[in-house]
Amino acid sequence: MKKVVLALVLAAVGFPIPAFAAGSPEEVRAAGDLSFDYILNKLTDEYSKGLLMPAPAAAPGERESGRDDRLWVAISASNSRERTRLLEAGVDIVEIRKDRVYGVIHRDALSQLSGRGIGVLSQEPLSLHLGSLKDFPAADAAYHNFKETTELLNALASRNSDVASVFSIGKSVEGRDIWCFRVNSSARGSDPSAKPGAVYIGNHHAREHLSNEVPLLFAVWLMDNRAVPEVKKYIDTLDIYIIPMLNPDGAEFDIKTGSYKWQRKNRRVNSDRSIGVDLNRNYDSWFGGQGASHYPSADTYCGPSAFSEPESTAVKKLVEARKNLRTMISYHSYASTVLYPYGGSEAEIPDARDRKVFVDMAGRMGALTGYHPEKSSDMYVATGDTCDWAYDIGGIFAFTIELEGNSFYPGAGIIDRAVKNNIKAAAYMLSVTDDPYKTLQ
Fold it and tell me: Is the four-CA dihedral 407, 411, 412, 416 of positive or negative sign?
């Protein structure tokens, strides 16, 4: 029944209908347990039966200094410009309500708020706020850590070596490889290709673990459905890059002690000995302007210069070396939105035709996921953004998808729904990657 419903939804938006792979349990086991349905069902079954390891506690772990000096604050803000001012003052905006925002700020940065005439409605230590949450997941071991992500990508590539390969696009601050799963029937690894290209990137922000699961399991789905005519066409004619975990250091740090740390940034040691740069403020697109904090301890710290970080530099090198790239999705959480440029400026994209493509594609992906499509800066202005940069330097139709959920740690039970919804949007993007302008026809 679920397959029938999915087919009807895809048909309603004019998307070619790829079927899910069929197979007996014996055939699935023979395939090395790499079936999309097998993996997703296993995660769901283990979660529902309570067979997973205990979930990390809600409170963030201590930093190297022995304490966490971040505060959970509520601040009046009712429009994009007021929210942008808060970002510049060092507030990491987590939730947006009609007349206020909730977020995180370092204790030492409170003076920046008062200096800008910004009043704080309430504040409390972040650890106390997190400890009061009632809906924290009971078990989160279903999520893939760095080792498990690496192993799954390599297993997929090994089993599908005629069309898939894995290569490192660079190394993180702490020396971990940033793995890319590439699907191309005629090119391997970092070899060039003239086929139209699509890029999927997850985990810019460490605590957004769901943003790793979606592209990772999309890779599984592609290989599981590679014989389906529509999917086979994508594999034969396109150049597909899937980078599930761009920030492996931050993602590993966030879970290493069994207590979530609300780690957003990478693990750069800053000049003041604070830790981390916000990778999604570090691209060379209006770098260091509106919506970026220059306070190193802020969770939205943009870094000392554009592309100062090896993780963002790895994306830069990948994109600049491949003039064939046409489309991109950068996954984040959580807001249930499909965002398109510009995020770093309130201005509209100057090319009217391109603007129409962005609006149309965002609308279609929004219909498939149930998310709200909008221009990024309508939420707030944030410079140094991945997708603004990708469009400006390469004409890439790049989108930020803010995944669903009610927190950065929504529990393992959300994986099944979020993955299935977003695979529809990810597959739709492949259907127009050969020529995004055909959406206007």
Answer: negative
Report the pLDDT value the prediction gives residue 330, as an integer from 0 to 100. Answer: 98
Q: What are phi and psi of 96, to 5 degrees?
A: -115, 125
Q: Which residues in the chain come in under a pLDDT of 50?
A: 1-31, 50-65, 132-138
Cα atoms in the 13 Å half-sphere on the side-chain side of 399: 33
Spell out the residues 6+ positions from residue 125 whose beta carbon is closer than 8 angstroms to its own.
68, 70, 71, 72
- CB burial class (10 A; 0-12, 13-18, 19+) of residue 312? buried
Q: How do strand 239-243 and strand 325-333 relate by DSSP bridges?
A: unpaired
Q: How many CB atoms lie within 10 A of CB 374?
A: 16
Catalytic residue set: 402
CATH code assigned to 70-131: 3.30.70.980
CATH code 3.40.630.10 for 2-54+139-264+278-440: yes
Check: CB of residue 250 under 8 Å from CB of residue 276. yes
| pLDDT recorded at residue 47 | 62
Strand order in the sheet with 372-375: 164-171, 177-183, 239-243, 197-201, 325-333, 397-403, 337-340, 372-375
